[in-house]
Fold these 3 entries.
Entry 1:
Amino acid sequence: MKNILITAGVHGNEIGSIFVAREIKGWLEGRGIEQVGVIPDVNIEAIEARQRENPVDGKDLNRIFPGDKDGTRSEVIAHDIFQKAKFYDAVIDLHTYGDESKCIPYMLTKLEYDFNEELCKKFSLRYAVQSLGAEGQLFIELSKIRTPSMIIEAGGANWLRNEIEVVKSALKRFIDGEETGKEVQFIREYDRFNPDGQGVFEPDVELEDIIKEGDIVGYLDSEPMKSPWDGIVLGYKTGGEYDPEEMSLVTVGFGDF
Ligand SMILES: [Zn+2]
C-alpha cells in the first residue's frame, strides 16, 4: 500500500468531513494500518468556533497554502500541513458544502495532471470534477509539486447523513485497494448559478437531477429561478436567505448525461 494522507477540518464548519476522518482514523488503528496518515482537525480554532475561517486571523486556510512558517496563525498551520503532506504519495482533503447547502459526493481536482486523473479512477465515487482553480488550495499547491491530490466534497456543513457514509465507504475501499467496480464520469466544466436578487430560497431540484436550460430550480421569494444551462445538479442551496455575493443557488456540472 502507498502512503496516503487524509485531511479534514480545513474549514471549521464542515463537521461531516471531520466525523469521516475521525472514524477512518479509528478504523485504521483497529487494523494496525500505519501507512495512512489522518489529520481530522487541521484548523483547530476554526473547528472550535464552527466557522469556515480561523478566528485568530480571519483567513480562509484553503487559500494560503503552502503557507509561511513566520506568518499569521493560518499561514503557520498551512505551512506545517504542507510540509507533512508533500512526503505522501497521495493526499485526500475532505470537505463539505457550507451552511444551508449540500452536494453529492464528488472528487474535485486539477484533471489536467494525469496523476490526479489516475487517483480519481481508483476511487469508488461516481463523479470527478475539474476545479475552477483558486490558488492556495492544498490540492492545487500539491499538484504543482506533482503530489496526486484532490478534495472530496460531500453533503453540507450541517448535513451528516447519506453523503458522508458514501465517502467513508469509498475511502475504506481505496485504502484496501479494492476494485471500484465503477467507471468515473469526468466533469471537465461546471458553474455556479448565482443570479442577482435576494430573498428566501426554496429549492425545487434534487442532487444528481439532470436539468435543461429554462428548468425551474427553485423559488426566490416565490419568484421562479430558471437554470441558464443544461447539466447535472452537483449541489444546491437547501433553504434560507440568499445573498448572491456569498453563495449560489445551484452548482451545475456540464457534459453528456
Ligand atoms: Zn471546505
Note: The CA atoms of residues 90 and 148 lie 5 Å apart.
Entry 2:
Amino acid sequence: MGRRVDRFVRARVFPRESVLDRGGPEAAEALGALRAEARAEGLWALPLPAGLGGGGLSFGAYAEFAEAEGASDHGPAALGSAPLLDVTMLARYGRPEVRDAYLERLVAGEIRSCYAMTEPGVPGTDPFRTATRAERHPGGGWLVTGRKWFTSGAAGADLVTVMARTSGAAGDREGLSLLLVPTASAGFRVVRELPVLGAPGQYEIALDGVRVPADHVVGEPGGALAIAGERLLLGRTLRCLRWLGQAQRAFDLMCERAATHGGSGGPLADRQLVQALVFDALLVLRTTRPLVREAVALVAAGRDARTEVGLAKVAAARMLQQVADSAIQIHGAAGLGPDTPLPALFRTGRAARILDGPDELHITSVARRVLRAYGRTGRTGPPVMGAGAIS
Ligand SMILES: Cc1cc2nc3c(=O)[nH]c(=O)nc-3n(C[C@H](O)[C@H](O)[C@H](O)COP(=O)(O)OP(=O)(O)OC[C@H]3O[C@@H](n4cnc5c(N)ncnc54)[C@H](O)[C@@H]3O)c2cc1C
C-alpha cells in the first residue's frame, strides 16, 4: 500500500501542486480530479474507519506511509485522510445526532471541517485566556460570540469546531468547551484571508451570536482541554510524519542538483562546503526519524506520549526548515523561484515552528516534565526516555 501511495503522490499530486498552491476555483477542480482518481485506485481515506466508508487502517499502519502521503502538503486532502483528526474526535466525543449527521459525509469528502482555537489578540499558547464565549440560549442550545484566526481551511468548510468559554472568566483553568458550528449558521462569517508567507489557506472568522444546538457540544461542557490535548498529540505526530516526507523530498532535490550542476570546476557535489550541507541535512533527517517513530509507537499504543511528541515536533519542524533552506542554497536563485517546490517546503518548515504550539512551548513543557521527575525521585542519572512514563 505504501508504494502505491508513494507512486500516486509523486505521479499525480506533485505535478498539480502549482495549481493547488494558488487556491481558488482552478485548485478546487484539480483537487476534485485527484480525489476521483484516488477513489478509483482504492486509495481513498485509508486511515478512516471502515464503518464510515474509510480504509480502516490503524494509526500505526497508516504511519508507515504517512511520510510518503505528506511529501506534498496536498497529499492528505487528495487521498481523503485530511479529516482524520476531526473524524477521530467526533467519533469519540460527538453526540449520536452529530455522528449520524456528519461523519459519513466527512469521510466521503462531501463536507469539510476545520478547527478554531487561536484568536487575534490572545496568545494561542495560553488557551485559558480564550475570549470567545458561548452562552446558553433560553430556547435551548448555545449562542457563540467571538473571533478566531489562522483557522486553516475555514473558507469552504461546512463545520468548524470552536473552542469557547462556557463558564468562568478569562484566565480560569475550567469552563472551556468545544462546539461544532455549521458554517451556514446565521452570524458566522469569514472575515478575511491571512496569507502565510504568501500562501493561501488560513482565515480569520467571526461568530456574532451564532446559535448552536445543544447536541453540537463535543464532549461535555467544560471538557475542551482534555479533548484538545488528545487531538493535538495525534495531530502533531501526523504533522511530524508529513514533515519528514517533505524534508526527504527537499534532500533528494538538493542531492540531484549538487550531482548535476556546477561550473567549470566540476559538479557542486565535489565542493566540500556543499558536502557539509548535504551531511548536516542527512544527519538531521536520520536523527529526527527515530524520534518521530518513537512518538508514533506511543500514540498508536495509547500510552503517554507527551514528552516524545514534544521532542519530535520541535526536531521535525527545525529539520524541515534546515533541509529546505540548504536545498534552496544549493539551487541558488532557482531555489527561490517558481520552478521547484522548495519555496513551499521552506514556508511549511518555517510555519511548522509556530503552528500547533511554537518551539518554545514544547521545549519548556518537555523540560519541565523531565525536571519534575528528577524532583520526585531524587534521581541523579538521566531519565529513561521513550518509556513515556514522565508526565
Ligand atoms: C500555517 C498556520 C496554520 C494554523 N492553523 C491553525 C488552525 O487550523 N487552528 C487554530 O486554532 N490555530 C491555527 N494556527 C495558529 C497556531 O496554532 C498558533 O499560531 C500557535 O499556537 C501560537 O499561538 P500564537 O500565534 O497566538 O502565538 P503566541 O502565543 O502569541 O506566542 C508568540 C511567541 O511568543 C513566544 N512564546 C510563547 N509562549 C512562550 C513560552 N512559554 N516561552 C517562551 N516563549 C514563548 C514564542 O516565540 C511564540 O512564537 C495556525 C498557525 C499557522 C502559522
Note: Residues 381-391 have pLDDT under 50 and may be disordered.
Entry 3:
Amino acid sequence: MLLQNVALAVAGLCGLSAAASDGPQAVEKIEFTNVGFAGTYTPVVSIKNADSDDCSCSVGSKQWFYGSNAPISDAVSVHFRGPLKLNQFAFYNSSSFNLDNADNSSDWSRVAYFDASSQTAENAVFLTKAGKDSPVLGKALSFADSDGVSSSSSSQLLAEDTLITSDQEYVIYSNASCPKSGKKNSCGVYRSGIPAYHGYGGATKMFLFDFEMPTETQSNSSSFDYFDMPAIWLLNDQISRTSQYPTDANCSCWASGCGEFDIFEVMNGTEKNHLYSTFHTFQGIEDLGTGIQADGYINRDTSGSMKGGVIFDSNGNTVVFVSNSTSFDQTITPDSLNNIISRISDDESLSTKLATISASASSTTSKASDANSLFEKGTGALWFYAFTFVTSIAHTVLF
Ligand SMILES: *[C@@H]1O[C@H](CO)[C@@H](O)[C@H](O)[C@H]1NC(C)=O
Ligand SMILES: *[C@@H]1O[C@H](CO)[C@@H](O)[C@H](O)[C@H]1NC(C)=O
Ligand SMILES: *[C@@H]1O[C@H](CO)[C@@H](O)[C@H](O)[C@H]1NC(C)=O
Ligand SMILES: *[C@@H]1O[C@H](CO)[C@@H](O)[C@H](O)[C@H]1NC(C)=O
Ligand SMILES: *[C@@H]1O[C@H](CO)[C@@H](O)[C@H](O)[C@H]1NC(C)=O
Ligand SMILES: *[C@@H]1O[C@H](CO)[C@@H](O)[C@H](O)[C@H]1NC(C)=O
Ligand SMILES: *[C@@H]1O[C@H](CO)[C@@H](O)[C@H](O)[C@H]1NC(C)=O
C-alpha cells in the first residue's frame, strides 16, 4: 500500500534529520516549507445510535485533496485548551501572499475577529464539548456559555479574562451555518443536535492570537489528561462535528488524515513551558499520532501575554511566530507582515522541509467539486499513482 512505500522512503533518510539536529531549541519563528500534497481521506458518512453503546460509524470513499497547504487548505476549526486566556483572535485571508516576496502579494483581510475586552465578535462562534454524552463519540458540541466551557442554548461571547484550566477546551468556528447533515452537503455528515458551523477555509490563510498561558494552580493528579498542557490548534472542521475523541476511529475523518495542525502546543509535563508546532498529516510519514514536529519550540510565557499566530502562504510555507508587534487590524499589508516576520533573527528561527510526494490522481470521470478536493466517482475510477518519493524531512536550523 501507498503509505508503506512512503514510510520506507522516509526511513532511508532518517540519518539526515538526526545529523542536522542537536536537540530542540527555543526560537520565535517556526517555519515549514513544501507544505501541501495530493492525498486522500475518508469522511464519515454515517453515525448510528449516537448516544448508546451500540454507536457505530462508517466512512465513505476516498476524497482527494491537493495543492499548497493541503489538507490544511480545507476549512478548519480553531481549538483552545487550558490553562489559557484568550484576549484576541483573528482570521485573515488573502488572494495571494508569498513570504519574502511582498511585490507579488496582496493585502490580508480580516474575516473573523474576537476581542475579549470590548466584547466584540465578527464571524466567530464559540462552541464547546458540553452536549449529549456518548460512550463512543464523547460529548457533542454545544454553544459555549461565557465561561467557555458550560453549555448554552444560544451563541455567547467568551467573557473578558476567562481562564480555562487544564483539560478544559473550547473551539471557534465561523458564523456560517451548515446545511443539514448529509454526504453531499457542504458540511458532510455530522452528529445530530449540534450547532453546526463551517470552519475557516482557503489555502492562503492566517490566524492571529493574543493569549495567556499561566501555570496551572490546581495540583496534579491522575484525573487530568493534559495537566498544565495548554494548546492552540487547528482541525479539519468535520472532526469536531462528528467526534473529536472517538473510541471508534471511523467516527472521525482524523485517522484517515483529513488534517490537524498544532500551532502552539505543550507536549508533556517535562517540557511544560515549551510550545511545539506539529502537522498531523500523511505528508511523508506513517504515524499520524506522532506527526511531523519541528525540532524546536517557542517559549511559553507564563506571566505575560503572548501575541503571534500562524501564516499559511500561497507557496506552501507555514510560519508560526510570536511577536509583540502583531496587530489585529482590519487590513494587513504584505509589507507590514513581512516586516514582523523578517525582524525575527535567524538564530531565533527554524525551518523544516516536508517530504515531497509526487503523485497524480488520474481519472476520466472525476471532477473538481471545489478548489481543493476531488470526489471519487465509482470504484476504481480514481486511483492514486505515486511514482517518486523524494522524502526528506530536513530539519535545518538557520544560523
Ligand atoms: C475571504 O473570505 C471572505 C469571507 O468568507 C470571502 O468572501 C472571500 O472570497 C475570501 N477571499 C479569499 C481570497 O479567499
Ligand atoms: C506571483 O504569484 C502568482 C500566484 O501565486 C504566481 O502564479 C506567480 O508565479 C508569482 N510570480 C512571481 C514572480 O513570483
Ligand atoms: C456573521 O458575522 C458577520 C461579521 O460580523 C456579520 O456581518 C453577519 O451578519 C454574521 N452572520 C450571521 C449569520 O450571524
Ligand atoms: C472502519 O471502516 C473500515 C472501512 O469501512 C472497516 O474496514 C472497519 O472495520 C471499520 N472499523 C470499525 C471499528 O468499525
Ligand atoms: C516531551 O515532548 C518533546 C517534544 O515532542 C519531546 O522531544 C520529549 O521527548 C518529550 N518528553 C517526554 C519525557 O516525553
Ligand atoms: C502530572 O502527572 C502526570 C502523571 O499523572 C505526569 O506524567 C506529568 O508529567 C505531571 N505534570 C507535571 C506538569 O508535573
Ligand atoms: C511581550 O509583551 C508581554 C506583555 O505584554 C511581555 O510579558 C513580554 O515579555 C513581551 N515579549 C517580548 C519578546 O518583548
Note: The chain has a mean pLDDT of 87.
